[in-house]
Write a structure and sequence with these properties.
alpha+beta; 4-stranded antiparallel sheet
Length: 408
Amino acid sequence: MSLPLELQTLKEEAEAVTCWSWATFKGWKLGPGTDKAGPCPNCGGTDRFAIHTTKNTFNCRQCGLAGGGVIDLVMKTENVKFVKACELITGRTVADPISAEEQARIHQEAERREQERAAEEEKRRLRAINEGLSIWERTAEPGPEGCGGVADYLALRGIGVRLDKVLIREIAAHPYVVEVEGENGRKSYPTIHTGPCMVAAVVLADGSFGAVHQTWIDLSQPNGKVQLVHPVKTDKDGAPLALPAKKVRGSKKGGAIKLFQPRGATRIVMGEGIETTLTMLRHNFEPGTAYWAGVDLGNMAGRALLGTDGKRHEDQPNLDDRDSFVPPDWCTELIYLCDSDEPETKTVEKVTRGLRRALALREAARAENPELPSLEVRFVEPIGDGKDLNDLVRVSLSPPGSGPGQPR
């Protein structure tokens, strides 16, 4: 949905201002370094809010104030709508007269910034892919049960599968590294844990390696995943900040973890994570079906449609987005798995958005090439009570390789 020329010009003029520049203008007291932390403009505190100057993003660990770009920041901190935010940033209204020459200059400057941003993003993307590939090249085939690795982890989760049939690997002793930024802004990268890790490759749409997905294992924990905290950062309650047991290094855009794909498959079942997807593979296996993990919900859903007032339509896709997952041409049925039902995650809306996006893009492609097959889409609803599909099978620890649901 294109904006009127006057509003588009005002938007581009506003986007020339960074989140950090706006924070300086407002007199917010934020610390040094790339990830500048300090009191939240909405809920206060001391260091719960931060602006990342490289990514031009912001986040508060207490109230959930988060997003990217100065317009988004002003809308959420000044409690105003899109047009008013642009007017506050630029100091002029959308109705103020502006010459054609000035409009052209603002547009050219916006294009230049976008080209620079895209070039820098591509450099970071390629560097991350190479780092992910170096990790992937250090992996090995999973060992048998009793070694404290992937086989035991999946058995603990009730999803023991034939590991010679799925694309999962492991590293026996893999370091978990965190970023720590000192008061002088200098960063260090200490290793806070070393242990067994389940590893999978994220394959991009063109078939190339995109990223490495890592899950650190600790079989002494109920869910089999390591429990770690950041050595410096704290959460909204002042306790040490809990860290995820999973990390992705590389580029996941439009990619998928292709856990299992039989020859001649026409259906894709996709969950957000490896464990959810393997639950369906192990306990509801169907022939002709590929079982892929989508890495995260954002990659599966794509960007949401933004109205002219800046409001997000969570269940409607932005069809200009080409950076998220699209099923390959051979897929005639796409099934998404809902991991959760918490209202704040908007999982059902995002899953709906992703399926609508896939369907619309397929129909557009079929208009250009009628020989492409049509696509059917649907999703498996969340089970409720904050649980995911894997919670249903955790009490049934079938030994790997036995019973129904095993890919052959």
